[in-house]
Specification:
Layout lengths: L2 H9 L10 E4 L13 H12 L7 E3 L11 H15 L5 E5 L4 H14 L3 E4 L13 H14 L4 E5 L10 H10 L3 E6 L4 H11 L7 E4 L5 H6 L4 E4 L2 H16 L3 H18 L7 H11 L17 H14 L1 H11 L1
Parallel strand pairs: 1-8, 2-3, 3-4, 4-5, 5-6, 6-7, 7-8
Length: 332
């Protein structure tokens, strides 16, 4: 076998027929105090989340890992380290966060060559200036990415008020004209529209899975029939998310309610205003639980005030996560 063939085999996805579904946490990214990436802590965090029984895949280079503040080379290093850590055990989904379609295609090619199993495509912020009135722009963006890779694409659907959402007709056109779109990450934040997405997209001749990211009302979302969910909250409570998923799949309402009661203190704390602090809070929660050494975020994000960290401590206590971690430590 030639060196070129060896290199090609090295970069082949470990899960070539991956269909995004099930419980998919989006992991965080640890930093040192000088804002450089703490790869040992990031890898340990990734390992811990991937070790949760029932997790179906892991997402990196997403909102949860502060992709907006990471360079192209850093994103590649994050993906390669993640693949090295857990890529033999679980599919790795890598985010495509770029305002320009050429740059998005470049990131897609990089992720494909590194060995990602699927790509989560963020909407370009450029579309916020009336892009919903020009659906051909969204289509051109996705086609540029699809031309760069054969990997499955997950279309990230934002709320309408964000101004970078895809109107429903545009969404249908995207999944029709870009066959590699295999799922949407649905953050429409509208229960009625969410149900329309589920009923319509998952019933197409070529079904497109709806992955909820409505973590603040996950039980209700899953009860509508999503084929999975993709959430940054899984960086902290992946075990509870798996328990919720299994209870809903088994139509066990009592079990789902019991899990929901435990999740609610955490989700209320994570997704309180201002919303942009959600992953900042998740980092602080992991520090409080002894799973991360520090909660450094890159500017413009800044550290939480002491009062909010105390609220997270109380949420952890109400959810019983501190007792659960103590039991795990004793067992180890």
């Amino acid at each position: 076998m030639t060196c070129a063939a060896n290199e090609e085999d090295k970069h082949m996805a470990k899960f070539p027929h991956y269909q995004p579904a099930g419980v998919i946490p989006a992991t965080l990214l640890a930093f040192f105090d000088d804002y450089s990436i703490d790869f040992p802590s990031s890898r340990k965090h990734l390992h811990d989340v991937a070790a949760v029984d029932g997790v179906s895949a892991i997402t990196v280079n997403g909102h949860a890992s502060e992709v907006h503040a990471c360079s192209f080379d850093e994103q590649r290093a994050i993906l390669e380290a993640s693949l090295d850590e857990v890529g033999d055990r679980l599919p790795l989904i890598s985010g495509i966060y770029a305002d320009g379609s050429f740059e998005a295609a470049r990131i897609a090619r990089m992720a494909d060559q590194a060995g990602a199993s699927a790509l989560l495509v963020f909407p370009p912020n450029t579309l916020g200036m009336g892009g919903h009135l020009r659906p051909e722009m969204a289509l051109a963006h996705f086609k540029a990415i699809a031309d760069a890779t054969d990997l499955p694409l997950i279309c990230f659907q934002y709320p309408e008020k964000s101004n970078i959402h895809y109107p429903f007709d545009t969404l249908l056109r995207l999944v029709d004209e870009v066959p590699s779109i295999r799922a949407i990450k649905d953050w429409c934040n509208d229960p009625a529209q969410h149900e329309v997405h589920i009923r319509t997209l998952q019933s197409l001749p070529r079904p497109v899975n709806v992955l909820s990211t409505h973590s603040a009302w996950l039980m209700a979302s899953l009860a509508l029939g999503c084929n999975g969910f993709l959430s940054g909250a899984g960086s902290v409570i992946a075990d509870l998310q798996v328990a919720m998923w299994r209870a809903v799949q088994a139509s066990d309402l009592a079990a789902a309610r019991a899990v929901n009661d435990r999740m609610q203190p955490m989700t209320r704390a994570f997704y309180a205003p201002p919303f942009l602090d959600m992953h900042n809070r998740m980092k602080e929660a992991l520090v409080l639980l002894g799973r991360l050494p520090r909660a450094v975020v890159r500017p413009p994000l800044v550290k939480l005030p002491p009062a909010e960290i105390e609220r997270l401590r109380q949420a952890i206590r109400l959810a019983g996560l501190d007792r659960e971690d103590a039991r795990h430590d004793q067992a180890a």
